[in-house]
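quick one before i forget lol
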Amino acid sequence: MTVEQHTGHSDLSELRAAYREQLAQLTAERDEARGQAHRARAEAVTARADLARVNAKVEELFKIAGVPREDGRPASDHPG
């Protein structure tokens, strides 16, 4: 093997190692982004459920108080 061939082989090995390292980094970043997206979806589901409970409680309080809603309808007319 000549010096040129040995150097070329070494350069190729370095490029492969750099490629594998970058691929591993991108894979880790992708997996982290997927995890964040999953957590965000779960938090959104929880927030929607919390909002629905709050809305139901507000409607209940309006009805008990006999106070019309801002749109002029009685609280019991809310489409739910």
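fyi The chain has one domain: 3-77.
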